[in-house]
Design brief:
- The protein has 312 residues and is an alpha/beta fold.
- It has helices at 13-23, 43-56, 80-83, 105-115, 130-138, 168-172, 174-181, 192-195, 202-209, 214-234, 244-251, 298-309; strands spanning 3-9, 29-36, 64-66, 121-125, 146-152, 187-190, 256-261, 263-265, 276-278, 290-296.
- α1 runs parallel beside α2 (43-56) and α1 (13-23) runs parallel beside α11 (244-251).
- The longest helix is centred in the last third of the chain and has 21 residues, at 214-234.
- The protein is globular, with a radius of gyration of 18 Å.
- Bound molecules: alpha-D-ribofuranose (RIB) and calcium ion.
- Residues 10, 12, 14-15, 39-40, 126-127, 152, 161, 167-169, 242-243 line the site of alpha-D-ribofuranose.
- The site of alpha-D-ribofuranose (RIB) has 15 residues, from α1 and α6.
């Protein structure tokens, strides 16, 4: 039976590729719904972008919900400098026609976890953890019902991308991240340590374009646009496909490896706010709470990604 998931997202070009990968894999994944959160760009754009991507995938029947428009306690920090003003800069995109669901995303998450058999729904956060934490705080009973949280966020050896210490998703809402990492939920973390090893390249982007499909062309344009930030900043060969690593992990966990360790979230540090303090060497004596992924088989990842995206 296909794994049942909820994708929580802040599109963002890399979120878009992750959503396409999930929707291209119906034999493995049943997407129960997509919940938009403020992150890369404000919520009105992330909910709209989520619907644009579902329509691009030919899945206008997908249920998309709008969630939290600001972090639990802080002002929203966005990333237009990476993703552009719309959040999906690169190609010209039409407004979506499919509807936004009227229910709040947090209530959808709670209701879905309460009505599904316990342990059968996986949450896949691809942005700040505000929606997930709000659901956990509003309905603590759902935590024990979650099969797994598999999220993109954090960094350790790779250090930060929005500050010297913090990765964007965690930095935007560190209090929300502390709720999720401290909840006891089964947790798999895909940090920059692994996503910076899933880099596009001219040849890989050409492979999307060579598909001859509208989806392939869109993915090529998005990754072309998205890579300029990382190439400039890191001198890397291409764009790190952060969020698609979450979906790829669900499809082929054998492509990834990491350690089950303690990871705490810095919520007070003047210079380290939002840092994922990952006890990779087990020196703290603190209880392990997360499978922290450090490596991916890059060729296997791109073979999976291109093979699935070509289906759409
Ligand atoms: O730091 C990378 C993460 O921040 C990705 O999820 C990207 O989409 C942005 O949300
Ligand atoms: Ca994201």
């Amino acid at each position: 039976m296909a794994r049942q998931i909820i994708i929580d997202t802040d599109p963002g070009q890399d979120d878009a590729v992750a959503i396409l990968l999930a929707l291209a894999s119906p034999e493995d994944l049943t997407v129960l719904g997509l919940t938009a959160v403020a992150g890369n760009v404000p919520l009105p754009l992330t909910q709209k972008n989520t619907r644009i991507v579902c329509e691009l995938a030919g899945k206008p029947q997908m249920r998309v919900f709008a969630g939290c428009d600001a972090p639990l306690q802080r002002k929203l920090v966005t990333a237009e400098h990476v993703h552009g003003k719309t959040g999906l800069d690169g190609p010209k995109l039409d407004d979506p026609v499919m509807p936004l669901q009227p229910q709040h995303a947090v209530d959808f998450i709670i209701d879905t976890l309460r009505s599904a058999p316990s342990g059968t729904v996986t949450l896949c956060p691809l942005g700040p953890l505000t929606n997930i934490a709000t659901a956990f705080l509003k309905a603590p009973d759902i935590i024990a019902r979650v099969q797994q949280v598999v999220l993109m966020g954090g960094a350790y050896f790779e250090v930060g991308n929005i500050t010297p210490a913090a990765e964007f998703n965690i930095f935007v809402d560190p209090e929300a991240a502390a709720v999720v990492f401290g909840s006891g939920v089964p947790l798999v973390v895909l940090p920059l340590d692994v996503t910076h090893k899933a880099l596009t390249s001219a040849a890989r982007i050409a492979a999307f374009r060579a598909m001859g499909t509208r989806v392939g062309a869109m993915v090529a344009e998005w990754t072309d646009f998205f890579e300029r930030f990382d190439v400039q900043k890191y001198g890397s060969q291409g764009a790190p496909l952060h969020d698609p690593c979450v979906i790829a992990y669900l499809l082929r966990p054998d492509l990834f490896s990491g350690r089950f360790i303690n990871v705490e979230i810095e919520t007070k540090g003047e210079f380290t706010l939002g840092m994922t303090v990952a006890d990779w060497w087990g020196v703290s004596g603190r209880k392990p709470n997360a499978l922290f992924i450090g490596h991916v088989d890059e060729a296997g990842f791109f073979d999976l990604l291109t093979g699935r995206i070509a289906r759409l």
